[in-house]
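Chapter summary example: a protein plus dtdp-4-keto-L-rhamnose.
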Amino acid sequence: MQVDETGIPGLLLLTPKRFGDSRGWFSEVYNQATLQAATGLETVFVQDNHSLSRVRGTLRGLHCQRPPYAQAKLVRCGGGAVWDIAVDIRHGSPTFGQWRGYELSAENGNQLYIPTGFLHGFITLTPDAELLYKCSAPYSAECDVSIRFDDPAFGVDWGDEVDLSLLSNKDREAPTLSEFENPFTYEAE
Ligand SMILES: Cc1cn([C@H]2C[C@H](O)[C@@H](COP(=O)(O)OP(=O)(O)O[C@H]3O[C@@H](C)C(=O)[C@@H](O)[C@H]3O)O2)c(=O)[nH]c1=O
């Protein structure tokens, strides 16, 4: 597994090994021991999510869950392609307010490991984009939070394809980060 730093502490871009042959390829997309050996992470995942977005330009985000259901996520794309975004909102982090974007696609097999204390979202670059992600805490409707995708505090570059008509009501009505009682703090490793 290839592990690439992102310049934001704790946020990692991962590329699991693929074994290609005449049939196609095989890949262990998640192996707890491999991930731990490559990164030192001991995250325990308790929920797997899978979403389909039919139309190119569909944006979901920016989301997180508050403690006690804060979630680390291991995100990959199983169909089509997305531009995947993580924003560091940990008070005291040297990269507070910074974001990173990566193309995750079925073809490149890249994964993003997003620790707790980040907002996460994505925009689809193809029709029928499928996002698959593991979460370290179960879903909690009470702790679920959406922050405006276009909050000027971080100015994420979503590209030119955002289809505002496809936003969920939750995302359309989301507050800015400054309106959110942000519970996350940075703990240096
Ligand atoms: C996220 C989630 C949603 N749901 C339900 C709630 C709702 O009725 C329906 C759709 O939920 P949402 O509109 O929140 O789905 P979506 O906008 O895809 O939310 C997801 O976005 C990405 C960016 C993330 O990072 C995820 O953690 C999650 O927040 O599914 C669950 O039952 N379990 C879950 O874990």
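Key point: The first strand starts at residue 2 and ends at 5.
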